[in-house]
Amino acid sequence: MTTAEFLGLPHVSGRGPRRPLRVALVCMPWASLDMPSMAISTLAPVARALDFVEEVDTFYANIRWADHVHEHTGGRIGSEDYRRIVDGYYVATGEWVFSPALYGFEEPLDSPFHAAATGSGADLTAASEMYRLSSGFVGRLADELVAGGYDVVGMTSTFDQNMPSLALASALKERAPRVVTVMGGANCDDVQGAALHRNFACLDYVVRGEGELVLPRLLDLLSRSDPDGSPPAEDLAAVPGLCWRSPDDKSTANEQPRTVVPMDSVPEADLSGYFDTFRAARSVAGVEPKVQIEGGRGCWWGEKHHCTFCGLNGSLMAFRAKSSDRVVREIENAVRAHHMLDVVFADNIMDMGYLRDLLPRLAEKPWDLRLFFEIKSNLDIGQLKVLAEAGVAQVQPGIESLSTHVLRLMRKGVTGWQNVRLLRDCRTVAVFPGWNFLYGFPGETNADYDEVVEQLPGLWHLTPPEGVYRAVLTRFSPFFDDPALGLENLGPSGLLKKVYKLPADEVADISYVFESRPAGIAESAAERLRAAVDTWRANHQGRRLVAVPEDGTLRIVDERTTSASEERLDDPLLVAAFLATLKGRSAAAVTREVTAQGHRTTEERVTALLEEWRARRWLFHEDGRYVALPTGLGHE
């Protein structure tokens, strides 16, 4: 069965005999070093299934770049420096490092980018050394690809991979104009892909949208065309999502596909190229490799209520997921083939159906897996237990804030107290929640944060955020698409404009990140939040607040400060009232709960109890709800 038939795609009616194609798929810096690229790992078997494709090789140039830098700096610059550039995506340092390989060398310390970035606090010491090495690396890689006799070289681009990929495409065209260059990935979605194609002649084709729908048809056309020519314009015009050049060298962008790829039609990813490259690398001693699995694409929450700041899904919001049978089989195959137990799901949000089928099946397997998922933060402890029993060790729950008002401005569909409950329950079931605290949303007030900041010392035993950041304006987000929501677009990143030698309007079409006029709270209020979170992070290690049920009583052990304490609640009314706050309830709801259990009390008395416990930081109070903070209690 051909790939086109496998994916249910129509055949392209071609002319003339076919020629065999040799294809290279390249993952340039700055893709993460610790896991495979889903793009090239998935497209490689798509291309291999075509009977006219003679060979498909994957090149993990990101790992090879880390080795190149390690070798040429005597090991002074390594994987940790690489990671810092990846984490600093919004600074565009990764793009700048590879700019001399495209535009030619200029002294890094004299460049406008260097002056602007260091002037705003960035440390470019290691990046400047990398800058001097990038041209040599790109040239060597291009020489290898040309010597390998590849007919087609495809590059995937997300975040800071544009400049490295463009530099490689340019070097290939300088050495061997016959090599067909193709670029795809998240950076090529919508107007971005069209802008890249019209501004960079080194790109023969740009794929907008899902590659599985476009690449087989493009390869089919190339196999029927002369090596020194292009496929007929009428055939190229019939490939949805393809950017191509007409005989008069005009860039043409076909409309993106309106259909999406069914996930069970996507071939199983081939991760072998990554692990082969990783195991031969010399610069990754401190990096722990992981299997990456794709369960689903799109975002089921975003289909209903698109979070105002999120642009991650681009034009492909429609959610679909693989069957649990497929996912179990892929995990088993990957674990056996690569001897890895760390499995990261690439999905932007977990399919809730996996709680019913996939995760219970994984819990039955005799594997000691360590899984990662992105989840929605309103999961209850029963659902978290299902995750933990299946081997989920870490989640990214998209907490973003502990203020219900701010979360409503984000359209998160969750409350601040629910996020606190999730942090508590993750600690109880031993699942690590990674999260960031965001601010800067139009309509937020200092009061939204004052109430939260005052209560943060009560959360020292729970996982703190990794950082506090102002929300960034990104393409495809509601903030970008609808200025009426309150973020004023001031144009593309000023730093990125200093990397691309293009008119400002062209950089704007290529950009994912944009500058905006600061909204929401002032930086002085943000600094108070940041200081409170820094204190939380500094005091988190070894802290605990635990509630232990003992013969109808509750023993509460508080070790959040150096003066540890222990207290027992033995009055049945107090025990019932405290347990009623596990799910998060108002004083009125707690009163109804305990009276339904036969306890005689009043809402006034219950409120006084809850406020006393809040003062002792046993409860978190937000949006009219009280939620218990001690860990260790399972509740159904």
Structural class, by secondary structure, is alpha/beta
| Biggest pleated-sheet summary | 7 strands, mixed
Overall pLDDT score: 95
Poorly predicted parts? 6-14
The total of beta strands comes to 24
Give the overall shape, derived from the CA principal axes. elongated
Helix content: 40-55%
Give the N-terminus to C-terminus distance in angstroms.
49 Å
Q: How are the strands of the biggest sheet laid out side by side? A: 2-1-3-4-5-6-7
Q: What would you report as the Rg, rounded to the nearest angstrom? A: 27 Å
The fraction of residues in strands falls at: 15-25%
Distinct helical segment count: 26
Describe this structure in words.
With 636 residues, the protein is α/β, with parallel strands linked by helices. Helix content is 41%, strand content 16%. The strands form 7 sheets. The chain has a 7-stranded mixed sheet, sandwiched between helices. Strands 8-11-12-13-14 form a 5-stranded parallel sheet. Strands 17-19-18 form a 3-stranded antiparallel sheet. It is elongated. The two termini are 49 Å apart. 50% of the residues are buried.
How would you concisely characterize the structure shown here?
By secondary structure, the protein is α/β, with parallel strands linked by helices. The chain contains 26 helices and 24 strands.
Key structural traits:
636 residues; elongated; five-stranded parallel beta sheet; alpha/beta; seven-stranded mixed beta sheet
